[in-house]
Amino acid sequence: MPEVSAELESVLAKLRACAAAPLERATAMPPELYSSAALYAHEQKEIFAKEWLSPGRAADIPNPGDYLSFAINDQPVFCIRGDDGQIRSFSNVCLHRMMRLVDGKGHCTRIVCPYHAWTYDNGGHLLAAPHMKKSPGFNPRDHRLPEIRTELWEGWIYITLNNQAPKVADLLAPLLPVVERYRMADYVHCATEDFVWNTNWKLLTENFMEGYHLPVAHKKTVGAWFPAEETGFPEQRFDAFTYQTFIKDQTAKYGLAHASNTRLTDRWRYTSVMPTVFPTHMYVLAPDHLWYLSLRPKSLGEVHLRFGYALAPEVYESLEDRDSFIAETNAFFDRVNDEDRMVTEGIYLGSRAPLAKGGRLSWLEREIHDFMQYLLRRLDTGETESQARPKLSVAR
């Protein structure tokens, strides 16, 4: 086993203590969990290099040649829909001089390196390399971009560098009965945006997965429609994800089933599901819309955030002025994101204060307790054998 630094072992010992406490006596994680460079390096190796991450939805790249870019640690990646309709992912680094090939999201019939015009098809094969005919033995057909393992689940794209990782469908099988009634793969793509926020990735993940802050931090937007006491959690805990459900009252502008929605019945017509697929894919699945965040840390105190949203097909089809509705919805979610940015960047600054410490968790922060146990399962080095790792259990 590689030698573990004193800093890393000290931080992991504090994580063990937090994760071992039952929810009714649990506290937030100590500030060192958000500021330790040793822990951040350990997370890159043990979490981000091994877990499934989501760059977005299959509906974001609907046509052959459509692509979107992402990154796993220092590995740039792009996902592209091939001529056969399949989505594949490749190293976003030219095979010649290691130039990044594409940025953002777009469409291309051929991928042309902006440095020396080495050209690839959307299956990653090198088609042409100008002025290479005098290089003995060089044949473009012998070269292909490294392919990144890619799987689709309920309309989501997942990628990983870990060829040994269990299949996404197996990891998320217990979540399927909860979300499949919505048929979210059919929701119509409306927008995606990319941001960089000055916070630690775990603070942003924790912020998304708890509704405790909604009536306060989001009192001018979504918090006004959130009856906190109606929040529900599954009895069982899961290895790869957690989730909560919540309802919207009849005054809510968003979150209620359209009159022509025939998929949802009874309470599901006003119930939303909010899963967090560890480590950094999270979404709100509502009867009328879907919005999501996908995170990747850029540094200890910076996180790249991809935000996107879609509308249920019957909602989209019913719109008389789609452009105006989508613009208005964009503006609304921008306000929600601004509210979250303010608190998550503020918490990061607060966590670096000498007198900072984590306080008691509310029952509404149950998923933060799930998250810290997930972190320990992935990060524990086993250096302290007397400290048992937390096991999945039925929540009280």
Automatic annotation (TrEMBL):
Top-level taxon of the source organism: Bacteria
Cofactor annotation: Fe cation
Short name of one Pfam family: Ring_hydroxyl_A
Domain named Rieske: residues: 53-159
InterPro entries listed in its UniProt record: Rieske_2Fe-2S, Rieske_2Fe-2S_sf, Ring_hydroxy_dOase_asu_C_dom, Rng_hydr_dOase-A
Alphabetical keyword list: 2Fe-2S, Iron, Iron-sulfur, Metal-binding, Oxidoreductase
Record's protein name: SRPBCC family protein
Species: Dongia sedimenti
